[in-house]
Design a protein that fits this description.
By secondary structure, the chain is an alpha/beta fold. It has twelve helices and 22 strands.
């Protein structure tokens, strides 16, 4: 890589960790000095700030959920006492709850890494279709686009008809927004008599705030020639991860420490296992340590062929409340949906039972084609299941077509505790 970010993005893992540990030590020390909330949190836990020497030491601190943050802020408006009072705040954003968020800094590379990875630069005219009103999305995406040199059309939440007009008249080349809204814009362009791929110049799209479903991604890329990229973040902590051109996981941003933890204990799970995404953004303004996003994912620790050496998130597998723990590992409905997609939308259902002290995982599968149930099919299915869900299958149970009703849960937990 040869870009404005490669100084950090191509660092070896040891150097990156050393730099992040150093920044974390400084953040905790400053937070303890400037924030009564941080001081009380550490004092109540019997922790001297000097004991936090590395990312691993964060485990001794509690995870702060969004619900907890709302409660804390209502107790001590507006920022729960987590802010640095010595640094002027240029913008205050809000999100439902309400949660009030001090804008980090104009010098922060919020979202710029994601746009660079998507190939957006000085030659692009980018339509930013996120709201600019109160919430962080519009302005922070806008600033990230400017940092990579793109010209920005701040279209915000304008109607799809206005968006079509802007894309046409201003020769827009890149879209930033939700995937569903881009689909609505494309559909509106057809109603207005245009052929989107032929008549417009949009060749790149960066999505956030919604999942990009596989079928919709294929449609954008194959039907309309739009190269698509996913971005992941939270208003409370900013950008967290993004896709590169390899599209084999989401690179974790250099300014964030991401832990994958057991939601019940707050302790880190082993690399590759599913758990809650917990984020600490390294900064000197807002000392929000260990923010629990409520999203489930797992870490990919191997280097990416693109040249970036950061760990990656393997997408979002669902929300904490949706997952079921089997033999110590989480299995989420979204993982089963991914499995279904790899096997021609195979109707299936996971059933978890308990025999003695052991969890037993049974996959109920509708046998709607002759090859389902053959030895080779079973071996491949179990292999793919373990690759996606980490945990292994104990039993396969074959059903007639139509026996699994669409309204039934993908995961049924029959254990009695």
């Amino acid at each position: 890589m040869n870009n404005i970010f490669d100084k950090k993005e191509s660092w070896g893992k040891r150097k990156r960790k050393s730099q992040q540990d150093k920044a974390l030590v400084e953040m905790v020390k400053l937070g303890y000095e400037k924030s009564a909330r941080v001081k009380k949190m550490l004092d109540d836990a019997g922790i001297n700030p000097a004991e936090i020497k590395s990312c691993e030491d964060l485990e001794c601190l509690p995870v702060t959920s969004r619900e907890k943050l709302v409660e804390m802020e209502q107790q001590e408006l507006p920022y729960a006492g987590l802010e640095n009072p010595d640094i002027p705040i240029d913008r205050i954003f809000t999100s439902p709850g309400p949660v009030y968020e001090p804008h980090l800094s104009e010098t922060d590379y919020l979202w710029a890494r994601a746009f660079f990875a998507a190939g957006i630069g000085q030659k692009d005219i980018a339509l930013c279709a996120f709201s600019y009103h109160l919430v962080a999305a519009g302005l922070t995406f806008h600033n990230g686009l400017r940092k990579v040199g793109a010209t920005v059309v701040p279209s915000g939440a304008s109607s799809s008809q206005i968006q079509v007009q802007l894309i046409k008249d201003l020769k827009v080349t890149a879209y930033v927004g939700t995937p569903s809204f881009l689909k609505a814009i494309i559909d509106k362009s057809k109603e207005m008599g245009f052929e989107f791929k032929k008549d417009f110049l949009v060749k790149k799209a960066c999505f956030a705030a919604e999942p990009l479903l596989p079928d919709l991604r294929r449609s954008f890329e194959n039907d309309y020639g739009i190269d698509t990229y996913q971005m992941y973040g939270a208003t409370e902590v900013g950008d967290v991860a993004y896709e590169c051109s390899e599209k084999k996981g989401w690179h974790i941003c250099e300014e964030t420490i991401v832990e994958i933890v057991d939601p019940a204990t707050g302790k880190n799970v082993h690399n590759g296992e599913l758990g809650e995404v917990v984020v600490t953004r390294l900064n000197n303004i807002f000392f929000l340590l260990r923010f629990g996003t409520g999203d489930l994912s797992r870490l990919i620790t191997e280097d990416c062929p693109c040249g970036r050496t950061s760990y990656r998130l393997a997408g979002i597998a669902g929300r904490v409340g949706d997952a079921v723990k089997v033999r110590g590992l989480f299995v989420a409905p979204s993982q089963l949906k991914m499995l279904q997609a790899k096997f021609n939308n195979l109707p299936l259902q996971a059933v978890v039972r308990r025999t003695g002290h052991e969890d037993v995982l049974t996959l109920r599968i509708e046998k709607f084609s002759p090859e389902i149930g053959s030895t080779s099919w079973e071996e491949n299915f179990k292999k793919v299941f373990r690759e996606i869900c980490t945990v292994g299958i104990n039993n396969l149970e074959y059903l007639r077509a139509g026996e699994i009703k669409p309204e039934e849960k993908l995961i049924v937990d029959q254990r009695k505790w």
